[in-house]
Amino acid sequence: MKLYSRMLVGGALAAAVGLSAIAAHAQAETYPTRTITMIVPFAAGGPTDVISRIVTGHMAQTLGQTIVIENVVGAGGTTASARAARAANDGYTLITGHMGTHAASVPLYPSLAYHPQKDFEPVSLLAGTPILILARKDFPPKDLKEFVTYVKANVEKVNAAHAGVGSVSHVSCQLLNSILDIKPTGVPFNGTGPAMNALVGGQVDYMCDQIVNAVPQINGGTIKAYAIATPERNPSLPGVPTTAEAGLPAFQAQAWNAIFAPKGTPAPIIAKLNAAAVKALDDEGVRKRLLDLGSVIPAAGQRTPEALAALVKGEIEKWTPVLKPATN
Amino acid sequence: MADLFSNLGLGFSVVFQFVSWSPSWLGGFAIPIPVNILLCLLGALVGTLVGVLPGIGTIATVAMLLPITFGLPPIGALIMLAGIYYGAQYGGSTTSILVNIPGEAGSVVTTLDGFQMAKQGRAGPALAIAAIGSFFAGCVATVLIAVLGAPLTKLALAFGPAEYFSLMVLGLIFAVVLAKGSILKAIAMIVFGLLLSMVGSDIETGASRMAFNIPELADGLGFATVAMGVFGFAEIIRNLDAGAEMDRQLVQEKVTGLMPTKKDMIDSAPAIARGTILGSILGILPGGGAVIASFAAYTLEKKVSKNPSRFGRGAIEGVAAPESANNAAAQTSFIPLLTLGIPPNAVMALMVGAMTIHGIVPGPQVMQKQPELVWGMIASMWVGNLMLIIINLPMVGIWVRLLRVPYRLLFPSIVVFCAIGIYSLNNAPTDVMLAGAFGLVGYWLIKHDFEPAPLLLGMVLGPLMEENLRRALLISRGDWSVFVTRPLSAALMAVAAALLVLAVLPALRKKRDEVFVESEN
Amino acid sequence: MSDTPSHRPVESMLPKWVRGPQDFVGGVALIAIALFALWASSDLQGTRGFSFGAGTAPRMFAFLLLGLGIAVMLVGVLTEGAHLATYAWRGPLFVSLGILSFALTIRPLGLVISAFASFLISALGTPETRWKETIIVGICLTAGCSLLFPYALGLPLQLFPRFLLQ
Questions:
Q1: Which residue among B158, B160, B215 sits closest to A79, beta carbon to beta carbon?
Q2: Measured between CA atoms, how close is C92 to chain A, in angstroms?
Q3: pLDDT tens by residue, B89-98
Q4: ipTM of the complex in this document
Q5: Helices (runs of H) and strands (runs of E) counted in chain B
Q6: Domain limits of chain C?
């Protein structure tokens, strides 16, 4: 890792001619000298918040400075992201962005006050949360194949719950619906809790949701899961097939979380942060806590800033056609 | 029954766990320390102190203090959080009574009679009865959770969007009955509140509504922002009016006993009992039940009272009933979390977050898989309530003394605390400005004899009502009859209709009563 | 409800047939709010099939408020009622300025300056203020808040001006 960061420092020096770059370099040498603020665009206790706290707790040890979590909620996380985009690019303000704020928001909010690619420097991917196709326990279809035929045949009757426009459950369900080429009635709720309550209570038929919220309910038999939208089965739900195994390989979705810095943050600082994040993801304790949540930890090759930039680009391309018509 | 005792026994054994501490300077002598009890006490104390800061309600307090529990073992952390929760809940009532600032929806009603009592020099009894009522309600609700938790869960699940809509309609009717002045103006205020609650983004399409492209309005007006404005700031501005010095002087000189008199206790006892029952039932319903609990209790008291005109003028039942109800509801709102693992409100969602950080993912099996956690928490609720009364009864004297601080020093302090409180909720300066603007609106409302309480209730109920109506109609495919064909919903609608008749009838005769009241003064 | 002698009614600028000026003006203001809300929600989609549109509920409530405003206004015309109360200017002005100054300075200047300034400006709201005592209390309060919020509660509040930190 050290070699890697040296390489980056070298690269930055070679590219920089002006005095400012040297100043930035000097600043980067000593970075961090004070508390770092990590903006989390969702409320404390949510999946993104939990993942951020677990990883930044370890990063703070590596960097030798405290990392304060600032939860800024609002407008599906876009309020927080807009604020982070405008923050000083000195490495002391970072944000944990996720699938919604740094990809799906582009087609969802036409007047978005920032652009995930143009206004941010990617730092590192942290963890992904797989998405499941869930249904109330007495919903007739037995497996995913039956589900597909049933939903297509009864599209006038079925209800799909989601946790509000722009939420992970909303956008992933839109993806599923567009793959199945159906438009069922979407019933919006205020957050995953109430949506899950309605599913357990049998008020609605199906929904797509993150694994964290669903595992205990599936194990408790209050709802059922048809498939998990990742390439591999998840250790916390070994009995649930992947979408590929169950016959719907096109449906792949993960709620990923990643660290971003405001555009123009010096490359050496990005490298230091990335190194700290990578070190955290390799730590046994951190890994165990993330895996307990059902999260997927990115492989070594997916943790570089470049890989994250590519992920953001790919995700924006993936979500744009799915979500564009929904806003009109 | 035997099960219940063994379960509660397990719970209390967790709470009363002793850890022996043998520091070297004692030379091998070990002191047993009741860690969990201390954590509960600490949580309740910190929760009260933070909750008492104007502008910081229960959710904000719990969110703020959540990180300090991360370093603790899971059970200790949750017990401490439960302490924080009750403490914050109680702290919110304290500001309602002392300075007319409700920390959250549940304590709006407490301001009506609580602040009037404080103005009459009876802040002490008001605070004490709130603590006593809360303690009683807490004890009853703890037993209820232990005995009936699992079966009551079914009620929570039977409530679909149609039932919630009917419940909200009922809630609106309660809000009308609260009014002490003109019913027409109270209804106008509720509707104004409903209209304010429409600001933000549409739940179904995400379209921005009346937000004028102000990012801070994208999610609507915050309860704390508006409450701080129309109650807190407006009250301060009004107190600065020329001629108001006299009133304030009186308040400071009149302070009499700190504890409720025998008559107060006799008056409040039935109110506390009724409030507890109502609160316990409504608290179970996730998504809005607990909000309605306190004003349902107030309405009930006003309706059963022989002399309803005392309400809004410092009736002790008007403090005892809603305070008991909101504490009972705060407690029973744990039921869906403990039996289903589903957080019914924002505070509970934070609790779930805390659990997941500690590696506990709550779900329907949490009772079987982690009985020591669930029963430990239930036992800690009771201990938490006990702590509250131990902390708060002696503190009543301190709070009341606060009222003796000269107003010229007190009011700028309240302004600063409120400003910091509102700012810290979202780190948004715009929120502070909005609260200031609502302060002026509130001042204007006072001058035109409009009551701010129905406005706030309308604001809280508005989104719940609209969203559930739309959900219900989406699920029924536009069939409005669901509200009367589903039995639970129909029953709620019937109660609402009956209450409306009860509320309107006396209003028609009211003019005559009013004359009597005025001539008495 | 009633006029106390200390609140001398403002010389009414309203015509004679307005018998309850307080309600009349209150009603007119509600009507204005309702009309404003109708205008502000006019761009929102209405009902579509069985599903409510974004604009349905706001417009419904706005119309309701319009009706209630008219009713309150009529009450003001038809029944004898309270006069307009007098407004003070000093309290509202300085308390608002205090709040506004806090909102504008908290981010650039930090908590210490912002809270202290806001305290002093608000204190101008009453002629009873005694400056020596106010300044001492203000300093104590600011110090207390600076310890309480960022340290004891761990809130991400900045204490000092941003330019001093860099």
A1: B215
A2: 31
A3: 888 888 888 8
A4: 0.88
A5: 23, 4
A6: 21-78, 90-165
